[in-house]
């Protein structure tokens, strides 16, 4: 579904005139200004706030030159994944240690000591690693892509730019979220809409990545053995 299709469905539900375009003459159309703002807010809220969506997960690589200890974040970086570690080619069994406190980071640099697998922190919108990565050494990490909109002009962005842009994630969830948000901003009852949106969001989140099979009649690999092949006692 395009942005225009989603907005038409939302307008039909909340009782406002269906548009021929969201962007055409938007400067003089207060309703479409609000719809566009609503669409951008809900798209970003769904994309950023609830989980690490598989469609938005990305991986970055830092490559050492023997000198640099500070690296820029990717241009499409939103945030680290909830379980992000930095993994280096110089120590593949242990990730670099994250130093969350800036004061501790400075203390460790002043004392010229560090964890044996290396350390990292974030300062000034950059990733800092210590010690400096040797020439050719690489460090990998996962992050969430901020660009959740498929642009009709090509590529991705973090906001809708035309009627034919579309949401990278589930469009029905976007529509239901917009309906809920519109009613809440207009002072209309929206408890049922919030429940419908929450149910839809929960279902999409649950199907975003496969759940591990704990018990079953088939081993998960040729090296695994079945520990308990019968139904779980209730």
Outline the secondary-structure elements.
Blueprint: H1 3-14, H2 30-49, E1 57-63, E2 70-72, E3 77-80, E4 87-88, E5 97-98, H3 102-111, E6 119-123, E7 126-130, E8 138-145, E9 149-150, E10 156-157, E11 166-167, H4 171-185, H5 191-206
Parallel strand pairs: 5-6
Antiparallel strand pairs: 1-8, 2-7, 3-8, 4-8, 6-7, 9-10, 9-11
Description:
This protein is of the alpha+beta class. It has 2 domains: 3-52 and 169-204; 56-145, no CATH class. Helices cover 31% and strands 18% of the residues. It has 5 helices and 11 strands, in the order ααβββββαββββββαα. It has helices at 3-14, 30-49, 102-111, 171-185, 191-206, and strands at residues 57-63, 70-72, 77-80, 87-88, 97-98, 119-123, 126-130, 138-145, 149-150, 156-157, 166-167. The strands form 3 sheets. Strands 1, 3, 4 and 8 form a 4-stranded antiparallel β-sheet that branches. Strand 6 and strand 7 form a beta hairpin. Helix 1 packs across helix 4 (171-185), helix 2 packs across helix 4 (171-185) and helix 4 runs antiparallel to helix 5 (191-206). The mean pLDDT is 92.
